Amino acid sequence: MQKQNTENVKEINIKLEKFTENDFALYFELVNNEKVMEMITERAIEKDEAKTNFNKLIQNNKLKENFGNFKIIETKNNEFVGLAKLEIKNSVDNEAELGYMVLPKYWGKGIAGKVGKQLIESVQKENQIERLFAIIDPKNLPSRKILINNGFESKEFKDFDGLPGEILELKLK
Questions:
Q1: pLDDT of 150 above 70
Q2: For residue 140, what is the DSSP state?
Q3: CA 165, CA 168: separation in Å to the nearest integer?
Q4: Do 83 and 101 meet the contact criterion of CB atoms below 8 Å apart?
Q5: What integer pLDDT is reported at residue 10 of this predicted model?
Q6: Residue 51 half-sphere exposure toward CB, CA atoms < 13 A
Q7: pLDDT of 8 above 50
């Protein structure tokens, strides 16, 4: 079984494209999915809240070309797979948040690992960022493993709006 899973990883090629104002339906498909959001908000996001969050995402995407929120696209069929995040708070920020959400039908195919690696490689080409961080649910062991395998270290456990979180960090400088 493990061998077959490894073959699937090689077969799936992805590309990252920034979300645009026309992509709300894709974003909503992701954040309205209970399984996707279980380890993030512990609930599916309703449409009004999703619209507010999406508008903030679009504004953040305008800060700098190589940073923001990206659609993960499976290249063979041009299918939407999920969201990749390399987010800064302002254009001169020296730290960025790395994150990803993947639709359940793509779980276990190595996509989050590919995305994490691609985002780290992207940010290493920038001189601006000194530190990457990721916030995960401590119970999300697959995500934790991906981050640790990419050089992240656990820094602290903290509550985020009443939900448990673990902050992992990768120092680049």
A1: yes
A2: -
A3: 10
A4: yes
A5: 55
A6: 2
A7: no
For the whole model, what pTM was predicted? 0.89
The total number of residues written for the chain in this structure: 173
CB atoms within 10 A of CB 147: 26
Q: Which of 18, 15, 132 is nearest to 64 (CA)?
A: 18
Which candidate, 94, 110, 101, places its Cα nearest to that of 57? 101
Neighbours of 57 (CB within 10 A): 20
Range of the domain at 115: 2-171
CA–CA distance, 34 with 151 (Å, rounded to integer): 29
Q: Pick from 113, 135, 125, 150: which is nearest to 65 by CA? A: 125
Residue 150's alpha-carbon distances to 93, 105, 113, 168, in angstroms, are 22, 24, 9, 11
**What is the number of domains present in the chain?**
1
CATH of the domain at 143: 3.40.630.30
Place of tokens 């700098």: 64
